[in-house]
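hey can u check if this looks right to u? its 175 residues, i copy pasted from the old doc so theres a chance i mangled smth
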Amino acid sequence: MKVYHLHRNKTWNALFLPLLILVSCLLLLSSCGTTSAKGLKTEHLALDVSSPEDTAEWWCRNLGFQIVVKQTKPPFAIFIREAQGHFAIELYRAADLPDAPDYFQQDPLQFHVAFLTEDMDADIARLTDAGATLVSRMTIQGSELTMMRDPSGIPIQLVRREQPVLSNTPYSQQN
């Protein structure tokens, strides 16, 4: 298995890091908690953040995650998992890179972590009170979407869908 490292050139990272993150998220979400035909099971998505401790604490307190691994040696990664145990995020600070990605500079449409909500307005108010910022609200093909950022800039999307994406129902063409 090959291991790839981010390029040290900031221009390269600015252009290709969002694409890399997006592809990783799509792969993760497409098989969350399931075993693929090749026998692989999705485990986690990794995010380089400036303060893993603060980010983990905020996600646990406000988004219902829990810390499941907290490394005591470099890279001091913290793994957080959502309540059902099907989705995990590794938060770390890459010591060999000068800076963590500036998520505030990335358009949330390039990368975001989405959460289903039953009460959009209540969740927006609750997360805003906890330090998140509202970026935009829209409705697309019957789905209500709200983009926010956590205090470290990571884009969060709140979603209320007419047609669920995560189900055992096969793909159907949408208008």
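The longest helix spans residues 10-30.
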